[in-house]
Amino acid sequence: DIVMTQSPDSLAVSLGERATINCKSSQSVLYSSNNKNYLAWYQQKSGQPPKLIIYWASTRESGVPDRFSGSGSGTDFTLTISSLQAEDVAVYYCHQYYRTPQTFGQGTKVEIK
Amino acid sequence: QVQLQQSGPGLVKPSQTLSLTCAISGDSVSSNSVAWNWIRQSPSRGLEWLGRTYYRSERYNDYAVSVESRISINADTSKNQFSLQLNSVTPEDTAVYYCVRQRYSSSWYGMDVWGQGTTVTVSS
């Protein structure tokens, strides 16, 4: 199985400041035939199912604010919230869908400092 | 707008079968541009993909090895829904279960539509 490891487990950021979450996969999730990384990011607020915010490592899902961005390739990825808003308080997960079983990171909790 | 509505019992006895159904509106269980997944979430195991069903000229199913001997995911085209059956459950199967859509268009996308979740407790 591909193991997804996120860091940090939690972080506290002041309103308007940048939040950065890292995700590392135990093997590459870059699909060479189309040059796409099969890596997604989700936001999960308390009591709700996860919500897709980024797919193909850097493509924002429709309706997601542009303060959310994804980067990286191969095995190392980053989710950045450029200016943290109160409504961004949540747990964030990375997810590889390159190979079954599809696997998720353990989650990173983002709070307001 | 695609919506997934889950139904099924929230309490299952050990050794019995967990059965959940996911009714689809706004899409088709027979579409060849999606896969229909079951994912569960628990404090001990995090988010865990269990399996999926999808149609590409014929029906395919993929299952996680961890539950492969106990799981079945079926599509019901007449009701436009899919279901999860997990046999011989133990307390370790206690979790929130989600049905989830994943799109495909010459390439897989992320999981873009989630059901509301069903909390399933395995206890006598």
| Rounded radius of gyration of chain A (Å) | 13 Å
**Spatial separation of the terminal alpha carbons of chain A:** 36 Å
Helix and strand pattern of chain B: EEEEEEEEEEE
Q: Helical percent range of chain A?
A: under 10%
- What structural class should be given to the helix and strand makeup of chain A? mainly beta
Q: What spatial form of chain B do the alpha-carbon principal axes imply? A: globular
Structural class of chain B: mainly beta
Tags for this entry?
heterodimer, A: 113 residues, mainly beta, 4-stranded antiparallel sheet, globular, B: 124 residues, 7-stranded mixed sheet
Helix and strand topology:
The complex is a heterodimer of chains A (113) and B (124).
Chain A: E1 4-7, E2 10-13, E3 19-25, E4 30-31, E5 36-37, E6 39-44, E7 51-55, E8 59-60, E9 68-73, E10 76-81, E11 90-96, E12 103-104, E13 108-112
Parallel strand pairs in A: 2-13
Antiparallel strand pairs in A: 1-3, 3-10, 4-5, 6-7, 6-11, 7-8, 9-10, 11-12, 11-13
Chain B: E1 3-7, E2 11-12, E3 18-25, E4 34-42, E5 46-55, E6 59-63, E7 71-76, E8 81-86, E9 95-104, E10 108-114, E11 118-122
Parallel strand pairs in B: 2-11
Antiparallel strand pairs in B: 1-3, 3-8, 4-5, 4-9, 5-6, 7-8, 9-10, 9-11
Task: Summarize this entry quickly.
The complex is a heterodimer of chains A (113) and B (124). Chain A has 113 residues and is mainly β. Chain A contains no helices and 13 strands.
